[in-house]
Amino acid sequence: MYQSVKLKSALCAGVSLLATMPAAAETVADITEISVSATKNEVEAFSVPASVSVVTREEMDDLLAASVSDLFVSVPGLSFGGGPRRTGETPTIRGVAGEGVVVLFDGVRQSFLSGHDGRFFIEPDLLGSAEVVRGGGSSLYGSGAVGGVISLRTLDAADLLADGERAGYRLKAGFQGASNEWMTGATVFGRSGDGRLDGVASLTFRQSSDIALGNGTTLSGDDEIGSGLAKISFQASDALRLSASWMGYRNDAIEPNNGQGNSEGDLMAKRVVSDTFRLGTRYNPETQLVDLQAVAYVNKAQVDEDDLDTDRIIGRDVETKGFTIDNRSRFDLGRRANVTFTYGGEYYRDEQVGTDNQTTDGTRGGVPDAVANTTGLFAQAELSLDTPMGAFYIVPGVRYDSFKNKAVGEAVETDESATSPKFAATWEPTENLMLFASYGEAFRAPSFNEIFADDVHFTIPLGPGLEAPNFFIPNPDLRPERSKTWEFGAGVDFVDLFTGDDRLTMKGSYFTSDVEDLIDLEVNFELSMACFVPGFPGTCNAGTSRNINTGRAIMDGFELEAVYSSLRVRLAASYSRVNGTDKDTGKYVGILSPNRLFTSAELKLPEIDARIGTRVTIAGRFDKVDDVAEERPGYETVDAFMVWEPKGGLKGVRVDLGVDNLFDAAAERVFAGVVDAGRNAKVRVGWIGSF
């Protein structure tokens, strides 16, 4: 009988995120990917009874990412809408987008949501790792985790310091040809001699212009970004660690009011200002009963848009204040079993202000001044068993949420609650094989934008000086979207498969979700008689719009990830398929994407301190639409890259060369007729050293 190393180590308190980083003495077989977001504890990603992908800092460096979406090219089930401009990027997981995906920066909720201004006000070069947990996650994260969770972790000093180093610096400069983008960055980091104090500070700047598309045309762009990070942590005692951080993002751009797609009209001067302030603590005394973590934060995000053709200035300002606290109590249940209980609570308050200098009261139509308060309590157990039939890892959990929405200055207030249970289990009959299954219920509370939307939605020009507006109508009776998801999967993990030091890991799953009370925008278009008959009583308008609960849906799909690594090569592949249909009408629902296959191949050349590789993405024809005009052809893109990290006197220097979309394919990735960027030559030079 064996004892599963993966399942046993999943519950060990001392496991660190640094396990994802290869040390000098480690072999290929030793390197593992650690997930924190899947269970709120450090667990080997392969063993989690869920679909979770971890993108390490080393993988991020190879991608030369200019935007967050560049980081996740290999992750199945995850796609990004918006188009070539980075400011409009919005994530979709398993066909669920918008409020159905939770986004976290160092555990801080990112609640800024708009129709076309994006969600990722963060610099990719400031990240230490990223995780994507696919599937309902409300049992831990509450509202919004119907599709899944995207969790980004910013750099720590430990990510950059080598063994024995006290302090260092990192300098970077790069260029990308498709958008004529220049990037420069500088980082300093260090820790005290006793290791109790460490910190990192970083600044990154990007400047880009027009984007060359794959069909030979050019998309106008004028983008300037400045990003900063300051983080410090202090080991106050053997048991207590304190941390504080600030992350800032500034973006000035000239682009259309709706920067998504290939739109060129209604140019606006956009200004994005985002600041995240975070305080954290971990108290871990020498007892198995207490391992307490707490985070308090304030996140402010504001987007102002100045119409270049008029005097109109509109804005959206969202502030989130919140905290989370959770504890872990661990128990040994004999030589062959142990359990970890994780329990805690969360509170966060979202407050939004919409402004428009062209309205009489200064408010903005469709962007109500409103407040949302959410309180959640959760509990989870992780049970590890070693039996004659193999190793078992069983994870039941449940969360209760109470959420209230209120429009500022209005008497109407909504008050709802939801309970989200989940049960998941992994069985390892042998050391090389794992099988898992899970059932979970998730929900998405209606946002204050959906509940309290008012004022003008859009206008229809009828002639000189005459137009008919369509008005939003608030709907305080909106119910939360709810889903019930089953998932079944399997994985294999082989060490020393073909050579003395190689590893093959493969994991795939099938999921099916039953979703009820879908929230959709209902537009009743009807021109009033007052628009055509002078003196007719009433107001000239073009009908009304309101958000309603409508329909039931079935979402299902299949995902697969595989990685083979040895001293000479690294091969990876992923595949995803997702479908969504209305149970009553049979029509397609959700933000669906084509079936997609991603592959990468890398050759390691230690003789010249280099690595070379290629990435290929193949997407099938997209015909999961109810309107033939929305169909999109399939596409294939090929990327090539080379990394040179010399030893000896040039140690610390790194040179990256690459070409994305090598054959200049006109890929229609997000919408019919919307073409992605064309061939994109990349270069970056970096230097990391110590003081």
TrEMBL record:
CDD domains noted in UniProt: ligand_gated_channel (cd01347)
Domain TonB-dependent receptor plug stretches: 46-149
Protein keywords: Cell outer membrane, Membrane, Receptor, Signal, TonB box, Transmembrane, Transmembrane beta strand, Transport
Family stated for the protein in its record: Belongs to the TonB-dependent receptor family.
Subcellular location(s) per record: Cell outer membrane
Signal peptide region: 1-25
Entry keyword Aminoacyl-tRNA synthetase: no
Family matches, as Gene3D superfamilies: TonB-dependent receptor, beta-barrel domain, TonB-dependent receptor, plug domain
Species: Kordiimonas lacus
Domain of life where this protein originates: Bacteria
Single GO MF descriptor: heme transmembrane transporter activity
Main location: membrane
The name this protein goes by in its record: Hemoglobin/transferrin/lactoferrin receptor protein
GO CC entries: cell outer membrane
GO biological process: siderophore transmembrane transport
Protein topology in the membrane: Multi-pass membrane protein
